[in-house]
Structure formats: structure tokens, C-alpha cells
From TrEMBL:
Top-level taxon in the UniProt lineage: Eukaryota
Domain S100/CaBP-9k-type calcium binding subdomain per the UniProt entry, residue ranges: 8-47
SMART domains reported for this sequence: S_100
Pfam families from the UniProt entry: S_100
Gene3D superfamilies (UniProt xref): EF-hand
Organism expressing this protein natively: Seriola dumerili (Greater amberjack)
Endpoints of the signal sequence: none
Protein name: Protein S100-A10-like
Length: 103
């Protein structure tokens, strides 16, 4: 009998799979691979990275040093920030705040 995965488990699997697919099955993404993946998977967010300054700010927020490739841990930091922002934006009127930022 096949295991039935939850929506959350499937979403996590998609994040991991898409990251490694974009990295050509490698452990890290270069900035071109990262930008391509983001434009396909997070097109609304990709607009913040349309210029070098925007890309540099996103990389800095993820903890990526200049010239360094992007690890899945760096990418997960971005996903966490995006999830918190989305939650806050969709729950404004409910007076609920997400405090699940990574340390």
C-alpha cells in the first residue's frame, strides 16, 4: 500500500526537489540558476530581483556572501521569510502574527 503524504509533506518535497533540479542535482545554486528558479517558482517575488541591487539585497538577507553559491539552507531562510510575510499579509484582519523567524 502506498504511503499517503500530507499537503505539507508534498510541499516540502517540492521545495527540495525544485531546488536540486535547478542546481542540476548539485548541492548549491549559482546566482543564474537561483534567478531562473525564482522566476519560474516565485514570479511575484522575482520582481524584487530584477536588478543587481535587488538580487544583492535578497542574497544578503539569505546570508549569502558575495561570490558564494546558494545552499539549500540559504534558500530555506528565504522561504521562511516569504512564508511569514505571506501569513502576515493574509491574516491582517485576524490580529494574528507569525513569530516563526529563524534565528
Amino acid at each position: 500500500m502506498a504511503t499517503k503524504y500530507s499537503d505539507l509533506e508534498l510541499a516540502i518535497n517540492s521545495l527540495v526537489t525544485d531546488f536540486h533540479k535547478a542546481a542540476d542535482d548539485g548541492p548549491t545554486l549559482n546566482t543564474t540558476q537561483f534567478q531562473t528558479m525564482i522566476s519560474k517558482q516565485l514570479p511575484g517575488f522575482a520582481k524584487t530581483m530584477e536588478n543587481e541591487e535587488g538580487l544583492a539585497q535578497v542574497l544578503e538577507q539569505m546570508g549569502v556572501q558575495s561570490g558564494q553559491n546558494i545552499s539549500f539552507e540559504n534558500f530555506w531562510t528565504l522561504i521562511n521569510k516569504q512564508a511569514v510575510q505571506l501569513f502576515d499579509a493574509t491574516h491582517k484582519d485576524k490580529n494574528v502574527k507569525c513569530s516563526c523567524l529563524l534565528q
